[in-house]
C-alpha cells in the first residue's frame, strides 16, 4: 500500500513539474505566431511538433535534413514551417501562420540529435482582442456593444462622478459559428448629468467608450430664445425707429427758417413762437416715447445685446452719454 502511494505521489509530482515547465504563448487570431523550442547540438537532427488534443496530431516534422509532411494533419497544411537555416544553431522553433481558434492547446516539441534527445512543451492560447466599442444613446437607454472577441469578454459600466446606486443593465453574449463572441449591454434610466463609461475587456486587453452629459435640452431652450424673441423684438424696434425718424423729419420741417422772414425790431412773430413751443413739446414727447420704449424692450434686448450691437454699431458712438438701448432708439 505504501509503495502504491509513493508511486502515485511520484507521478503526480512529475506531472505538476511538467505542467509548470510549459512555455506560455498567446497568439493573435489570423496572425503569425512562433512556438519556441531548441535542441541539443549534434548531427542528424530530428524534430517533431505535435498538437496534443484528444490524440496526438503531427503538426510539422523534420528529419533526413529536410521537411517531412507526410503525417501532417489537414488543418495545419500550408501554415507551418521551421527556421531550417538556424537548426544547426539549436533553433527548432515552429512558425505558425493564420492562427485559428482551433490551434489552441498544448504542443510538444520532440527533438533528437547525435548528442541526445530533448522534449519541450508549449501551451498556446489564441486571442481575438477587443478592437472597437460602439456606444450610443437612444432616448433613455444607452447601448454598448463589441464584436469578434475571443475568449469570452467581460463588460462593465462606470460613471463620472461615481454613482452611489447600482447601475441597472442587461448584458447579452452570443458566440458565432467561428467561436468568436459578440457582447451587448443596455443601460436603462441613466442620469443625464453623468458621464457613462462602458469597458469591454479580456485577459490581455480592453477598450472603453463613453457617453457625455446631455446638453440638448439647454440647446433647445437657447435656440428657441435666439429665434423667437429677437424676431419679434427686432420688428418692434425697427417700427419704433421708423416712426421716430418720421417724427424728427416733421419737426425739422416745422422749424425750418422761412425763405423771406419778416423782421419787426428783432422780435419774433407770434407764429414763430408757437412753432418753437410746438417743437419743444414734440421733442419732449419723443423723448418720453423713446425712454418708455427702451424700458419696455430692455428685458428682451439685454438677452441679445451682441445681436443689436451688430445691428446698430453707431449708436454707442453717436450718443455715448446715454444707456446703450436708449441710444438705439434715439440716435
Automatic annotation (TrEMBL):
Transmembrane residue ranges: 222-245
Coiled-coil zones: none
Gene3D superfamilies (alphabetical): Immunoglobulins
Localization terms from the record: Cell membrane
Main location: membrane
Pfam families linked: C2-set_3, V-set
Biological-process GO terms, alphabetical: cell surface receptor signaling pathway; cellular response to lipopolysaccharide; immune response; negative regulation of T cell proliferation; positive regulation of T cell proliferation; T cell costimulation
Ig-like domain residues: 20-125, 129-216
InterPro entries linked: BTN3A2-like_Ig-C, Ig-like_dom, Ig-like_dom_sf, Ig-like_fold, Ig_sub, Ig_V-set, T-cell_Activation_Regulation
Keywords attached to this entry: Cell membrane, Disulfide bond, Glycoprotein, Immunoglobulin domain, Membrane, Receptor, Signal, Transmembrane, Transmembrane helix
Cleaved signal peptide residues: 1-21
Membrane-topology annotation of the record: Single-pass type I membrane protein
Gene Ontology CC terms: external side of plasma membrane
Protein name, UniProt field: Ig-like domain-containing protein
